[in-house]
Specification:
This protein has about 625 residues and is α+β, with helices and mostly antiparallel strands. It has helices spanning about 105, 220-225, 260-275, 285-300, 320-330, 335-350, 375-390, 395-415, 440-460, 465-485, 515-530, 550-565, 565-580, 605-615, and strands at about 35, 40-45, 50-60, 65-75, 80-85, 95-100, 110-120, 125-135, 140-145, 155-160, 165-170, 175, 180, 195, 205-210, 215-220, 225-230, 235, 240-245, 255, 550, 590, 595-600. It is elongated and about 100 Å long.
């Protein structure tokens, strides 16, 4: 009996549109051997043993049978699925080839193309039957998908349903999706996905392809069974072929392994990595840093715009995210990429010295009316200082002078924004939500930015600027000590909005840790820790982040503890973050309550934080902008 189409509604979204012009397995005429068809919009047959199975008649004119593939949907997470090639559909003894796959090994409940390897079984040209049956103790359905639309030259399929038909029943309108000896685009992972566990669909994206100009997201459904060619953004597919974004192209191409264009791209990206500084950490951390750097490079546009991620809501440049990326590029010896981001910041700074919350990647302006965020006036000067400290000494003063008008405008606005209490006004910060009173997510970055600006001014001989911003820094530092420190650096000075992971912004490499910060870090981490092991950005009683851990907020603590000498704590948090990388080694934005990567992967901000943390733990921490000396008595 045919399975109702509603059996696996959540998995039907995997019935992706096939690439135009590529319909592997659909015969052009009846004279062509029927050895497959690609359509799979309907759940046709329940194939759960012992009462159900299905078989599809096919013909071959070859002498070898290497593999078959079928499109399955399973609500069961455990059990096995067996495919056999039989001479007689109902006779197990007539099988000439058999293979079994384990549902748990496939990732559990899910849907997509499943390949069954036969190891080059000998066959003679003729007609055979592809038999499929699943065995599971779970109640969830296991269905063979296909189409009820006409397929030229198709052969008979058969449904075994002991309860309904009493045995085998021939089907004239059901055409299961299958391939015999799939090759090229018929292999899963090329034009259509391999079997995708439902758990993988918690994320929007899974990886990135790039040619230095264009970027393309790897969808989770096409990341299954794939891996990057080491040191590159070229994807090795389950078929063994490669997917990459050729130079000058805006869409990826699937090519044979060792394709000259792909090889040239691999060589170039490896040379870029080698041109920087790699940490001396263990293999896992080095691999994580390498992947993070390549992903950040893929998110960096030639203009200097740095995309937060590569899915439409993330394809904008935030000054905050770009600042962290610039710092990570700088500390790893990629000064040019860091400087490109800062040049973009200079071009997109508003006339009053502030920045929009985000801009389109062409730098033409904001995509909407989202309110601007004052913390950018701290993050950008801090990133400029980090670039300057890490850049080659030759020529860096001249390059700094090109950025200095941006620094001056940003620091002057920050200094003017301070009130009688020494604090800046309420402004949206990295939460991108308004607060009614000053928040630590704005105050701490502004302190780092004023200290950085004052030091840069002194290095260029601009003593007036340096003194003015040092005075502002002292006022802000005193305001933070008076208003935030007694509260354990909670989110807002009124103490009404709970803890905030931005407490970490008071630690190196942003600010010299003030007295009492160690306890504030510990208590805030405890307050924000979630059952999945990560942390929430905050616990404001008026706003819930739900059960999702944010990898950036979690990484704040790893970086802060690395910068304050708490290596054991930093290692523990970093290990958790790295454990949440997906199958391609990419770091996601969030981790859901079930502990699975979700939202976008990679997230450039988290990539940068991991790079900075590993470098700090490796003994190569970023410096912290120096706080100004106390003002002279009576000064």
């Amino acid at each position: 009996m045919a399975v109702a189409r509603t059996v696996l509604p959540a998995l039907l979204s995997l019935s992706l549109t096939v690439v135009p012009g590529a319909l592997p397995g659909v015969p052009a005429a009846a004279a062509v051997p029927y050895d497959g068809q690609v359509r799979h919009e309907s759940a046709l047959f329940n194939v759960k043993a012992t009462g159900n199975a299905a078989a599809q008649e096919f013909t071959v004119d070859d002498t070898r049978l290497s593999r078959v593939s079928v499109w399955l949907g399973s609500g069961a997470a455990t059990g096995t699925v067996t495919a056999q090639v039989r001479r007689v559909h109902s006779d197990a003894g007539s099988a000439i080839a058999s293979a079994t796959v384990d549902l748990a090994a496939l990732g559990g409940a899910g849907a997509g193309w499943v390949e069954f390897p036969f190891g080059d079984a000998d066959v003679t040209a003729g007609t055979y039957h592809l038999f499929v049956q699943a065995t599971t103790a779970e109640d969830g359905p296991v269905a063979w998908y296909g189409t009820r639309q006409a397929v030229p030259g198709s052969s008979t399929s058969r449904n075994y349903d002991r309860a309904h038909w009493g045995g085998w029943h021939a089907e004239d309108t059901a055409r299961p999706a299958f391939h015999v000896n799939p090759a090229g685009g018929e292999r899963c992972g090329e034009t259509e996905p391999c079997y995708v566990p439902a758990s993988a669909l918690a994320a929007r994206t899974a990886g990135l392809l790039t040619n230095g100009v264009a970027t393309e997201a790897v969808l989770p459904s096409f990341a299954v069974g794939a891996s990057y060619v080491d040191g590159s953004n070229v994807l090795r597919l389950p078929s063994g072929r490669w997917r990459y974004l050729p130079d000058g192209a805006s869409q990826s191409a699937v090519v044979e392994a060792d394709d000259p264009g792909a090889l040239a791209q691999i060589e170039e990206s490896r040379a870029w990595l080698a041109g920087g500084r790699e940490p001396r950490a263990g293999a896992e951390q080095r691999a994580a840093v390498q992947r993070a750097l390549l992903s950040m490079r893929a998110l960096l546009k030639p203009s200097g715009a740095f995309a937060a991620g590569w899915s439409p809501p993330w394809e904008y440049s935030w000054p905050r995210d770009g600042a962290f990326a610039a710092a990570a590029f700088a500390v790893t010896g990629h000064a040019e990429e860091a400087y490109r981001i800062l040049q973009y910041d200079a071009r997109t700074q508003r006339a009053d010295g502030t920045w929009e919350a985000r801009t389109t990647l062409d730098g033409s302006g904001p995509p909407d009316a989202r309110k601007w965020q004052l913390d950018g006036n701290g993050w950008v000067p801090w990133a400029t200082w980090q670039w300057y400290r890490a850049a080659p000494a030759a020529g860096r003063d001249e390059r700094l002078r090109e950025l200095y008008p941006m620094v001056r405008a940003a620091a002057d606005f920050a200094a003017r924004s301070l009130g009688p209490d020494g604090l800046p006004p309420a402004s949206p910060d990295y939460w991108e939500l308004d607060t009614t009173t000053t928040n630590i997510g704005t105050a701490a970055p502004l302190l780092a930015g004023l200290n950085a600006s004052a030091d840069l001014a002194a290095r260029l001989g601009a003593s007036g600027d340096a003194e003015r911003w040092a005075a502002a820094s002292r006022r802000l530092s005193a305001g933070i000590a008076a208003s935030f420190a007694p509260l354990g650096y909670q989110r807002t000075v009124d103490g009404k909005h709970g803890r905030d992971s931005a407490v970490a912004f008071m630690a190196p490499p942003f600010n010299t840790a003030p007295p009492g910060l160690a306890e504030a870090l510990d208590s805030t981490h405890r307050a924000l820790l979630l059952p999945n092991g990560g942390v929430s950005p905050g616990n404001d009683p008026d706003f819930s982040w739900g059960s999702y851990a944010w990898t950036a907020s979690t990484s704040f603590f790893a970086l802060a503890w690395a910068g304050t000498g708490e290596q054991t704590k930093a290692d523990r948090v970093l290990d958790w973050v790295l454990s949440k990388r997906n199958g391609l080694g990419e770091l996601p934005e969030t981790v859901n309550g079930a502990g699975l990567p979700s939202s976008v992967a990679p997230l450039g901000w988290t990539d940068a934080l991991v790079v900075l943390t590993v470098q700090a733990l490796d003994g190569s921490p970023q410096p912290t902008p120096p706080a100004p000396a106390p003002a002279a008595a009576g000064g």
